[in-house]
């Protein structure tokens, strides 16, 4: 089947979360609050990590990047969803749909690879404390970040490349509030069995491999910490559970990450207070 002869659909109708106005308005209120907290929480972490020299370490560099990615990840779908909840015509063009799909998988892929890098960073910090700064120096950290971005890009471009060749000749109703591969494939006017197999393999392999690395890394850490205090073991277990939870990345996860990873940290709290006092000092003269 030649896509050029059959691709007639120029846009898709996003069915969203509900067709009932009262429910849509309720969802709008709830998710507006969630998105606002997501933006404020994650950008606050980025500002804190950037502004305080005491937090210019590998661990906080990775945490700052994670917060920035969480902000980007939520922004890919949330603003559009909020507008569509109040709109009577939630239609997205084919090009915009593919763009959203690309960035959704691009940022999501980077996040998964970054979480794997973070697990490796914590493993080195606990297993090789004397050589940690030598192993996780700025060059290595930078290369790992570049690798995460490249990995996310390759993962995403594969998804888009496999999707863009499909013929879409109707129907045009997308059973979701954003564009993603599984829903788009259902609308294709051709047999997509092989394509679905390739996409599931691509998604599943990336997620599974990173998940196994995370699980193996923190399992090894727990064994190493058996001789440590209960407080140390509890902290390691908490971090392990947090990483595993984030791998499942839902819309609410970016809002929770600042609290899970950073805001409970004493150094971050001290830096936050410094940033707050600095802002008060700057705004003080303006108020008078």
TrEMBL record:
Membrane-traversing stretches: 25-48, 60-82, 102-120, 140-158, 205-225
GO MF annotation: an example: olfactory receptor activity
This protein's UniProt keywords: G-protein coupled receptor, Membrane, Olfaction, Receptor, Sensory transduction, Transducer, Transmembrane, Transmembrane helix
Membrane topology: Multi-pass membrane protein
Locations listed in the record: Membrane
G-protein coupled receptors family 1 profile domain residues: 41-247
Role description: Putative odorant or sperm cell receptor.
PANTHER family attached to this UniProt entry: OLFACTORY RECEPTOR
Identification of the protein by name: G-protein coupled receptors family 1 profile domain-containing protein
Lineage: Eukaryota, Metazoa, Chordata, Craniata, Vertebrata
């Amino acid at each position: 089947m030649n896509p050029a002869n059959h691709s007639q659909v120029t846009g898709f109708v996003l069915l969203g979360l509900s067709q009932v106005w009262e429910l849509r308005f309720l969802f709008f209120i709830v998710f507006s609050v969630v998105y606002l907290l997501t933006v404020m929480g994650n950008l606050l972490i980025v500002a804190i990590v950037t502004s305080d020299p005491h937090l210019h370490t590998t661990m906080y560099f990775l945490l700052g990047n994670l917060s920035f990615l969480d902000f980007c990840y939520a922004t890919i779908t949330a603003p559009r969803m909020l507008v569509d909840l109040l709109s009577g015509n939630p239609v997205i063009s084919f090009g915009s749909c593919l763009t959203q799909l690309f960035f959704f998988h691009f940022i999501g892929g980077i996040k998964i690879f970054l979480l794997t890098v973070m697990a490796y960073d914590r493993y080195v910090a606990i297993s090789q404390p004397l050589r940690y700064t030598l192993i996780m120096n700025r060059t290595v950290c930078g290369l790992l970040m570049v690798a995460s971005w490249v990995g996310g890009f390759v993962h995403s471009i594969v998804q888009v490349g496999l999707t863009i060749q499909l013929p879409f000749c109707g129907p045009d109703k997308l059973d979701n509030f954003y564009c993603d591969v599984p829903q788009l494939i259902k609308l294709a006017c051709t047999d997509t069995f092989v394509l679905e197999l390739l996409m599931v393999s691509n998604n599943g392999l990336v997620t599974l491999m990173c998940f196994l690395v995370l699980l193996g890394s923190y399992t090894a850490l727990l064994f190493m910490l058996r001789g440590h205090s209960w407080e140390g073991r509890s902290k390691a277990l908490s971090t392990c559970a947090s990483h595993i939870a984030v791998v499942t990345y839902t819309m609410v996860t970016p809002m929770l990450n600042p609290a899970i990873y950073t805001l409970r940290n004493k150094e971050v709290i001290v830096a936050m207070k410094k940033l707050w006092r600095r802002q008060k000092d700057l705004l003080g003269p303006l108020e008078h």
